[in-house]
Amino acid sequence: MYKIVTKRKLNDSVVLVEVEAPFIAKKVLPGQFVIFRIDELGERVPVTVADYDREKGTITMIVQTVGRSTIMLGNMEEGEYLQDVVGPLGLPTELENVKKVCVIGGGVGCAIAYPQAKALHNDGVQVDVIAGFRSKDIVIIEEEMRAVADRYFVMTDDGSYGEKGLVTQKLQELIDAGNQYDAVIAIGPIPMMKFVSLTTKPAGIKTIVSLNPIMIDGTGMCGGCRVTVGGKTKFACVDGPDFDGHEVDFDELMRRNTSHKAQETHDREHCRLRGAHNG
Asked: What is d(CA 246, CA 183) in angstroms, rounded to the nearest whole number?
């Protein structure tokens, strides 16, 4: 059992949950993920570790409440327990001999991009962060991101905060201004990662994306998280979740990730109605 020690609502659909998990906290590195279960009958939900505290023995997960299990997690309170938290899983982000990196987060993807930016900043790397959101009311972890960024840019679709536009527009602007990035890390919606990769490719900038395809066991056995990278089949759980953005078949990934959208919509409505009934 894994105790929730901190629970904070970041916006209407995103929650931060800090959980006691000393063995995971001792080993986890930026880019790796865990799989949690709410209870014995719960589904296995993969979530990238947003932060960790080795001394306290805790890990932090930032979760968007879009399906049954994540909605249930969002309704839990401090002092309650999760049935399982397994990890760390996947390969950590590997960036060596870099001096200047641009880290790009889209929406809740900022939570996944944060530990990479933090690790690079702590290693003395110059870090530019571009954070993209639909509007001001869903901006998350701005204070944390600013603390690990040499320059922090917020882009909103509607212009309600920061600059109006897409993260790719700001990235292109920075590249055109002569910024020579050794690498770009892009984490967020699949279309965003696709177009960031298309933006960096002409400039020959190494681009790393973190993929979150449908996943079940997290050990490479089920094959549910398969992705095509460089024309070859890879498994996000054991070969990733980081991959070369210039090699990923994003169109195939988008088709596979939307295959369960109807079920997710049904589960979300079921949880909403049950919550209203219990209230």
From this structure: 12
Instruction: Report pLDDT digits (tens) over 167-212.
Output: 999 999 999 999 999 999 999 999 999 999 999 999 999 999 998 7
CA distance 169 to 175: 10
| CA 5/CA 177 separation, integer angstroms | 45
- Among 29, 37, 16, CA closest to 242: 29
| Nearest by Cα to 49 from 187, 231, 180 | 187
pTM of the model: 0.85
Which candidate, 187, 223, 179, 185, places its Cα nearest to that of 207? 185
| Domains of the chain in sequence order | 2-89 (2.40.30.10), 100-210 (3.40.50.80)
Coil vs helix vs strand at 238 = helix
Q: CA 245, CA 206: separation in Å to the nearest integer?
A: 8
CA distances, 80 to each of 4, 10, 77, 153, 278 (Å): 6, 19, 6, 37, 19
DSSP 208: E
Phi, psi (rounded to 5 degrees) for 255: -65, -45
